[in-house]
Write a structure and sequence with these properties.
189 residues, 33% strand, alpha/beta, two-stranded antiparallel ribbon, globular, Rossmann fold
């Protein structure tokens, strides 16, 4: 997706540890026009699928999932990283390792929001080692629903996540693919 790639090259920052900082337009400050374009593009790529719901993990995936769900005219659900008093205890849960934060956390979705037989499109902001996407897939499979595919805004192709998902047979569409990053030269390819 040309507009996303251009924005990454213009405003993305490479940090130590192969971290790509895109907080000025995706995950701290959100460019709603870009999110609308992302929703259009993911819809175009998955329009051949029956999608009943869109699933993401809070918080960075929420704007994109919202945009995609609007295009499909379906609800979106986000897995929560923190339990609140009003979520209840009838939950699907899994553990996900955060590459950016270097920690393991539990994510949950209420069982009333993922239903057996539904067709779920997983939306992930970053695909690096694939842990968030695999965690969401686990939640969908626990519910008896079907994963129709995974849409990643940005795939770090030099890491294993994309290959793992493809080898497992999941349809993966990445809007931008980063071949390599150089923190010293501050280059993104």
């Amino acid at each position: 997706m040309k507009t996303l790639k251009e924005r990454i090259l213009k405003d993305g920052k490479v940090l130590d540890g192969n971290i790509l900082k895109v907080d000025s337009f995706i995950n701290h400050q959100v460019d709603y026009k870009l999110m609308d374009d992302i929703g259009d593009e993911i819809y175009r790529r998955f329009v051949d699928c029956k999608v009943d719901k869109v699933l993401t993990i809070e918080t960075s995936g929420i704007p994109a999932a919202y945009s995609v769900a609007r295009k499909f005219d379906v609800p979106f659900v986000f897995a929560k990283k923190k339990l609140s008093g009003n979520i209840g205890d009838d939950l699907f849960s899994t553990e996900v390792f955060s590459y950016t934060k270097s920690c393991l956390y539990k994510v949950v979705v209420s069982k009333k929001y993922l239903t057996q037989g539904e067709n779920i499109l997983v939306v992930d902001d970053f695909l690096a080692n694939g842990q968030a996407a695999l965690g969401m897939i686990d939640l969908v499979e626990q519910s008896g629903a079907n994963v129709v595919g995974v849409a990643a805004l940005i795939e770090k192709a030099f890491q294993d996540g994309g290959n793992i998902l493809r080898e497992k047979g999941y349809r993966l569409e990445a809007l931008a693919s980063i071949e390599k990053m150089d923190v010293e030269g501050i280059k993104i390819k």
